[in-house]
Amino acid sequence: MSKVKVWTDRQTDRQTDRQTDRQTDRQTDRQTDRQTDRQTDRQTDGQTDRWTHRQTDTQTDTQTDTQTDTHTDRQTHRQTHRQTDTQTDRPKTIYPDHSI
């Protein structure tokens, strides 16, 4: 075997190895990137869903509390006025004095 053929074979092998390594690296990088992107998307979606749920719950609770407080205040106000009006309109009963 000639020295030139051996040298050429080695060069070809090295070049093929480098190309294969680069191709494998690119493929591995793409797979890793896709996997990382999917995992990040899932985590972000989960966090966003939990945050949105908490915000919605808090807003609903606050709104419900406010409506309940307003309703209770109105009911109390009406009840108080009814009682006051009734007591004011009612004539006083005068009992005869039996001590005489």
UniProtKB/TrEMBL annotation:
Residues 1-100 are annotated as: Disordered. Residues 57-67 have a biased composition (Low complexity). It comes from Dreissena polymorpha (Zebra mussel). Residues 1-56, 68-92 have a biased composition (Basic and acidic residues). This is Uncharacterized protein.
